[in-house]
Write a structure and sequence with these properties.
The complex is a heterodimer of chains A (about 350) and B (about 400). By secondary structure, chain A is of the alpha/beta class. In chain A, about 40% of the residues lie in helices and about 15% in strands. Chain A has 14 helices and 14 strands. In chain A, strand 2 and strand 3 form a beta hairpin. The longest helix of chain A is centred in the C-terminal third of the chain and has 20 residues, at about 235-250. Chain A is globular. Residues about 1-20 of chain A have low confidence and may be disordered. Chain B has helices at about 15-20, 20-55, 85-115, 120-135, 140-155, 195-220, 230-245, 270-295, 300-310, 315-345, 355-365, 370-400, and strands spanning about 175-180, 180-185, 185-190, 250-255, 255-260, 260-265, 265-270. In chain B, strands 1-2-7 form a 3-stranded antiparallel beta sheet. Classes of the chains: A alpha/beta (about 350), B mainly alpha (about 400). The interface between A and B is large, with 57 and 55 residues.
Chain lengths: ~350, ~400
Amino acid sequence: MKKLATLGVMTAAGLSAGAVSAATLDDVMARGQLNCGVTTGLVGFAAPNANGEWDGFDVGVCRAVAAAVLGDPTAVEFVPTTGKTRFTALASGEIDLLARNTTWTFSRDVDLGFEFVGINYYDGQGFMVPKELGVSSAKELDGATVCIQTGTTTELNLADYFRKNNLDYEPVPIETNSEAQPLYLEGACDVYTTDSSGLAATRAAFENPGDHVILPEIISKEPLGPLVRHGDNEWGDVARWTLNALIAAEELGVTSANIDELASGTNSPEINRLLGTEGTLGDMLGLDADWAVRAIKAGGNYGELFEKNIGENTPIGLARGLNAQWTDGGLLYAPPFR
Amino acid sequence: MSSISDPPSGSFQLSMLINDTRYRSYTFQFVALLLLIMAFAYLGYNLISNLQAAGLNISYQFLGEPAGYDINQTLIPYTSQSTHWQASLVGVLNTLLVALLGCLMATIIGVVVGVLRLSNNWLVRQLMSVYVEIFRNVPVLIWILIIMAIFVAVLPQPRDFRGDDPEATMVLGAFAFTGRGFYSPAPIFGPLSGIVIAVFLASIAGIFALRSYAKKALFDRGQVIKTFWPSVAIFFLPTIIVYFVLGRPITLEYPALTGFNFQGGIFMRNSLISLWFALSIYTAAFIAENVRAGILAVSKGQTEAAASLGLRPGRIMNLVVLPQALRVIVPPLISQYLNLTKNSSLAIAVGYMDLTGTLGGITLNQTGRAIEAIFLLMLFYLAISLAISAIMNVYNNSVRLKER
């Protein structure tokens, strides 16, 4: 009995023994590969494409960081994580960066010991129901069976929302998005709830997307962003400013098409600093001068990534909404490159 | 008598710890213990220093904080405002529920299949060996997923019960078998129902009294008293008579389709049923082999001796073979029960909120207290398993060979 209990402690201790060395940037460079945690498959955000290569909006962030640090956007080992395993994977050092529609919350940032490097998608939790149910508002969902991904903030939001509105419901906890789809489609649950971007992506993968509606209520704030381990500020800076570079590039009109031309020098000092023809920003990060050029070239700037993976011309069809640049009435606002 | 060792010398020397066989084993055990303690101390130190380096600590305060999430199947009162500790208890009870149901059903299926594997009928024998080989050689997680997938896909959903000409209807107007689970009527106990229940319990006691009287009569006087039909009568008649005399104090609440789901009655969720069923048929395949081994372990001479006394085959099995076979069957049966209980931690695959789903799943995730939650989880499973072992060992002692 005693032995059994202590064995477990040993496992726990063994796990953390392999963890957490401070200089992630050096580790990644020495390894020649970035270990990036993504979802187990959410079309548009992170999913293997027809050629078996990972593709998507979150994947784009991983590739940009790999390009900035290693000079090769394909030098990424994608580690699929579930809502449950993602934080352990990051804390234990199995992955260097987690880009997996993860909501930035106080307790994750402060208590779990992570550092969110920014927000790459402003989201909120929504509900999807089959059209035939004739439901037009989440307030009509009294008594419904709700499929929900376990280990996410949506679980807590859902409990709060139904309690606040004095509604009754039956939660059906599911581990991954792909497990939820058949249950929802077979009718084992009436409602599927997750971040509304995730709902749009899931619906796009259905045979008849038109048979399902996303209800108008958005019941929470879900700022999604990539995160790293707390306490390794150099690595956090690299991830943060790579994301900022993608956002700033869109604001400044730097795209993957015109970047080669702009990288030879322009008359805009901010673009020059971003692209490394002026100043020593790359040096300060511990990278070379072309880091941002490579990051932007990897998959394009923020706007290009958005349009290519989840934008209005894709099956997922998300509008920019809150995710437009601040100059267009959105919330994207990259700090100055100076 | 040539090899008498020297009488022990009076003085003790340090080298005797290695050279003297009387002390050597103690020396080695002491060294091994010391190494073990050092290994654990190193791991413990490593854990604590790494946690400190990451700015974390070990704390169980989260157990007192509100859980914030809902659980579908709760055997004790629970809301999203209850504490994480309460959520863990809900999980423990759900684990115990599925383990208890699973052990019962696995035992029944296992004994039947084990006996039938020794049947004289070739077809039955082969069918049973196919069952055993298929079910014990495919991982139980796969069975859980297969059964859940079939369950959800084959059975009609509540939406199929709707409309003027529904695709599915309720069985007898009282039972609904849907892909979300089974709904059946629930008893509602009126004011006088306590008397009915008391009469029912008394009649069960009566059946036991009848059986022990019959056994005594058989042993003392060799008189055979038939007990089957009297038992059936005692089981039903008094309760039914009292029930009607008191004016039917127990009524039934029928499930009815209102809104999104059936409401009312007893609801067994699809997750519970698939998990229960998968664990049962998987473990039953192992139990069947234990039962077969136990029966084969009873010497053939016993059967032949019983037959030569004029006992019929059914009585030979019940009175001679099974009591002896149980001595072989019960110890491995205990470990099958433990396996089933621990395998129930795969419940999250079908969304059944057992201990691993609440404490080791959502609570762990929302609080981020992985080490604390896993440690507590291990303690819970350890306690459950040891309790099962203890109970089964008591039973094992009662059936084992009495040495007088």
